[in-house]
Amino acid sequence: MLKQHTVIDSPYGPLTLVATDGLLSGLYMVQHRHRPAEETFGEPDPRPFGEVRRQLTAYFDRELTTFELPLHLAGTPFQRSVWERLARIPYGETRSYGELAEALGKPGASRAVGLANGKNPVSIIVPCHRVIGSTGGLTGYGGGLDRKQRLLVFEGAAAEVPSTATLF
Known about the structure:
By secondary structure, the protein is an alpha/beta fold.
């Protein structure tokens, strides 16, 4: 298994992109909660990431709302089913953990959905930031609640938070 990585700039800080056998397998922010150890990212090499870069740039330029990238997602079958469902949440919309559990045919599994959501290895591309609490409030996000809020505002899925508000 060949692993490679590169770091790119974004409006949300540096993003570390990881490829496994040429397919995107990780997108991690600085201080990302479940970020693997750097030594597991493989050799630095920007070559496998041309299309990923192009699509991320288009997303940040508001020219792309749906990513079309082949991914290599390592996880349990349940985690992969949650991540597949996350990828179906439209740009600018949100879903609750309970709604995702219901859509998966497991209405009592909202907590398990939340845990799988938190382990999503390709944030932004598999849009786990679009999942909110049942009351509409922000809940955990691997990249931090401030980034989650900023991504939701960027997509038009949330109102701006007053500068005096706390997200933690």
